[in-house]
């Protein structure tokens, strides 16, 4: 197993553009989580999935943020009409149902909005 | 909502012992996790306490007191490679894993 992977690792975009990030979890993990992390802060929970069902999305930062996991495997996080304040590291993690406290994180996608 | 408090920075000498404290407020508490994150890296799981008491994993131990809403991470025989940020995170019925702001540990020679 190669662990959690994320693509791209870095993204530079102009304000107002849409961006989409992909996360591939550990294959046997049915839970997948998205976090945002800014410098000097802990990961901030955004949303999570159990298989293809999105169980919590009220923490998404605005209606410009959306996430999908259509087949219960990989997931995408989209940010529409990006703003400079969206610049951050976007982390994905996965876990089993029974061990939610043990999450395995991907390397993250660092977003810079100019 | 949930909140966690931990010191922002700690400095300790190589070979020494350091304790990083965490206090939390949450409803529907299940347990307290600890994660390590090196600069530029991803958080990695260290330990989890669901019950009161001490859990030991090699040089690292974690403690929980549910009645005091308090836990700590204990690092023994500090090594330079332990320099990193350490996050406590609560698992509750409402939201999976809410992280604290982290404690930056600097190990000096």
Description:
The complex is a heterodimer of chains A (114) and B (109). With 114 residues, chain A is mainly β. Chain A has strands spanning 5-7, 10-13, 19-24, 31-37, 44-50, 53-56, 65-68, 75-79, 88-95, 104-105, 109-113. Chain B is mainly β and 109 residues long. Chain B has strands at 3-5, 9-13, 18-25, 29-37, 44-49, 53-57, 60-65, 70-75, 84-92, 98-99, 103-108. In chain B, the strands form 2 sheets. In chain B, strands 2, 4, 5, 9, 10 and 11 form a 6-stranded mixed beta sheet that branches. Chain B is globular and about 40 Å long.
In short:
The complex is a heterodimer of chains A (114) and B (109). Chain A is mainly β and 114 residues long.
Note the topology.
The complex is a heterodimer of chains A (about 110) and B (about 110).
Chain A: E1 5-7, E2 10-13, E3 19-24, E4 31-37, E5 44-50, E6 53-56, E7 65-68, E8 75-79, E9 88-95, E10 104-105, E11 109-113
Chain B: E1 3-5, E2 9-13, E3 18-25, E4 29-37, E5 44-49, E6 53-57, E7 60-65, E8 70-75, E9 84-92, E10 98-99, E11 103-108
Parallel strand pairs in B: 2-11
Antiparallel strand pairs in B: 1-3, 3-8, 4-5, 4-9, 6-7, 7-8, 9-10, 9-11
Measured distance between first and last alpha carbons of chain A: 36 Å
Percentage of helical residues of chain B? Answer: under 10%
Structural class of chain A: mainly beta
- Rg of chain B: 13 Å
Coarse morphology of chain B? globular
How would you classify the quaternary structure? heterodimer
Major pleated sheet of chain A: 7 strands, mixed
Strand content of chain A: over 45%
The count of β-strands of chain B is 11
The residue-averaged pLDDT of chain A reads 94
How would the global form of chain A be characterised?
globular
Largest interface: A-B, 23 and 21 residues
What distance lies between the first and last C-alpha atoms of chain B, to the nearest angstrom? 41 Å
Taken in chain order, the helices and strands of chain B follow as EEEEEEEEEEE
Number of strands of chain A: 11
Largest sheet of chain B: 6 strands, mixed
Instruction: Classify the secondary structure makeup of chain B into a structural class.
Output: mainly beta
Classify the helix fraction of chain A into a percent range.
under 10%
Number of helices of chain A: 0
């Amino acid at each position: 197993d190669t662990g959690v992977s994320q693509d791209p690792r870095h993204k530079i975009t102009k304000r107002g553009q849409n961006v989409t990030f992909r996360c591939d979890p550990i294959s046997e993990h049915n839970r997948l989580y998205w976090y945002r992390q800014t410098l000097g802060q802990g990961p901030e929970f955004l949303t999570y999935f159990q298989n293809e069902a999105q169980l919590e999305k009220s923490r998404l930062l605005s209606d410009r943020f959306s996430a999908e996991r259509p087949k219960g495997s990989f997931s995408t996080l989209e940010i529409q009409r990006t703003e400079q304040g969206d610049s951050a590291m976007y982390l994905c993690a996965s876990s089993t149902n029974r061990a939610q406290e043990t999450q395995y994180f991907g390397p993250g996608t660092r977003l810079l909005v100019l | 909502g949930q909140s966690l408090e931990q010191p922002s920075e700690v400095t300790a000498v190589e070979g020494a012992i350091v304790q990083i404290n965490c206090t939390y407020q949450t409803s529907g508490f299940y347990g307290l996790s600890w994660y390590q994150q090196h600069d530029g890296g991803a958080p990695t799981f260290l330990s989890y306490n669901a019950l009161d008491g001490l859990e030991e994993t090699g040089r690292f131990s974690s403690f929980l007191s549910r009645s005091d809403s308090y836990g700590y991470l204990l690092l023994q025989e500090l090594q330079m490679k332990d320099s990193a940020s350490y996050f406590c995170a609560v698992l509750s019925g409402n939201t999976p894993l809410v992280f604290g702001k982290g404690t930056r540990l600097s190990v000096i020679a």
